[in-house]
Design a protein that fits this description.
Blueprint lengths: L8 E4 L9 H28 L6 H27 L6 E3 H34 L1 H7 L2 H27 L7 E2 L6 H5 L7 H32 L3 H34 L6 H25 L2 H18 L1
Parallel strand pairs: 1-3
Antiparallel strand pairs: 1-2
Amino acid sequence: MENSTGEFMFVLHGLNDTKANKHIYFAIGLVVYITTLFVNLTLVIIVVLGKTLHEPMYLFICNLYINGIGGASAFYPKILADLFSDIHVISYTGCLTQMCAIYWYIFCEFTSLTIMAYDRYLAICKPLEYHSIMTHQMVVKLLVCIWLFTFLETSVGAALTSRLTLCGNEIDKLYCFNWDVVKLSCTDITLNSLYGYILIFSHASQFIFIIISYIHIIKASLKSKTERVKFMQTCLPHLITLSNFTFSLLLDVLCARYGNGERLQALRNILGIEFLVVPPLLNPIIYGIRMTQIRSRFVKIYNQKIKAVG
């Protein structure tokens, strides 16, 4: 399929069953997207402007907020536009761009959660050494590493996909996802498949590292009431975020690689939306509203605005 300019176009089939209620879906999607942007951006500003929040843990959390904005923006604008169109298409360039943005969000989220687990391990298991290890320079280096590692993973994947010759243009998903594009190739995809397994192994290793870190954290937390409180306030939200993100993403990847047929379309839609919609909306709640310092800072700014208006 080509448009008037001759550019290759993909057809997205994920919204085929939503025509009857598209206005309802559009309204819900728009509200959720605006809420996601507003809450994440507000908390980013609070962390940046609050000097008392310029600690490693809050800076890593702020990085999650920024990544959540990027992930939501990679998904919502296109699907909201498609809800008001009878033909759901996307150009080859647009597809690669969306694919890269979504994968950037996924890789950055996972690597950020890994670094946060390391930070919490040092804070609880090695409290006397924490400030000497997790210095401002170290935090900057870790944040740079997160973004560079994410850039490398995304760039290699995009380069491997862009070299393929495609013999089809139909994607059974709400948005462009790498493996769905790769499956349309009529040339050898062994290298793409191998790189996919490398990514799975890499992030599975990160997941194992996080679990091992939390085994040590839990052991240390059982020794004192103070550490148990610290675990409940800062580590439990991290585990909730990690579990939700990992399992929804894993199931979606498995469906993309091994699941075919219209019977799985609804399941794939739910899984695909879940890891793109829920974490950017959930992270501000479990990391922002539930954490005392961020919440108190938010309330203080809100009260100042109310007084200024009054």
